[in-house]
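User: I'm putting together notes for a lab meeting next week and I want to include a structural view of one of the chains we've been expressing. I don't have a solved structure, so I'd like a prediction I can at least talk through. The sequence is below, exactly as it appears in our construct file.
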Amino acid sequence: MQEREETRRLQFTGKSSYIVSLPKQWVLELGLKQGDQITITREGKSALKILPAKDQAKSIQTDEAVLEISRDDDNAAIVRKLVSLYFLGYKTIQIKPKADRLQPGQRNSIKSAVKGMLMGSEIISDSVEGVTIQVLVNLLELTVDGAFKRMLHLAKSMLKDALLAVEETNLDLAREVIDSDDEVDRFGFYIIRQLKIAISNEYMLKDMGFTNARQCLGYRLIVKNIERTGDHAVLIAKDLLEFKKSVRKEAVEKIEDLNNFATSVLDQACLALFKEDFIQAELAIKKAAETSKYEKRILESIKSIKDEEEAYRIRRMSENVIRIAEYASDIAEIVLNMNIEKMLRKTKN
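Assistant: Thanks for the context. Below is the predicted structure for the 349-residue chain, given as structure tokens.
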């Protein structure tokens, strides 16, 4: 295994410069070559940092992948492979038939996935002989934090609209909620792609605002909880589409109160994430424990309902919203784990 630390001797050259050699293996592993530029930064009074210049660092990202598929390959399996390649950070993905040609269903599945799931991707070539996809988005145009905030806003809006659809028996709004879930997933996939690139490239890790790879893992877990938040909004919307009628108004109002509380806990947990605030995360966990008060009010109201179907629907909708507070608590726990070392340093001081 290549050592992470080596001792090299400074040499004086010319009249005003010093030079130092770099280990050959390190240079090769970074994809650098003679003539490439590096950036040297002075950090404090006792440290120097050497990094590949920005254009070289970004070129380390893998350029092209070729995926060969057979005519019998399942459409869903093809899409899963495509998403995996997108996660790995490829700029261009070619999907080609192993023999003969791509089947119409396969091409349609690929095109639907690019349009609905892979943010920043465009199809630049499409025929029976293959589909070529290019990821056009600049890695730093939409930051991980920026994408996460938009994803969070969408998920919360879906919850609010799902309950409004139930209150108004608005089937069209319920369908819009279900369609919005694809957009939440697109942001989620984009963030995962960025995190994977950051983990594999130390320069990108710093450029995206992370101090270590462990933060990326924490962020990945948090993104999954936001994806699930959108999923529960979809379940509420599907309930309305299944039964095509609302439930009593007072029950909806109590569920809306529960939702307002749950999303406020979610906001607090995510604010702790953005501020890297250990104490704020602790407060979010304590606040999430108060969810039981809202749940009891809903359960009490169900006791007087004789219609078993309606009681079941109210209980199921409230359970979907309760999950949001649980996810908020999980997010806060992850924030604690990500920032615990700061508390240790404060204690030492």
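A couple of points you could mention at the meeting. The CA atoms of residues 272 and 280 lie 5 Å apart. The longest strand covers residues 121-127.

User: Perfect, that's what I needed.
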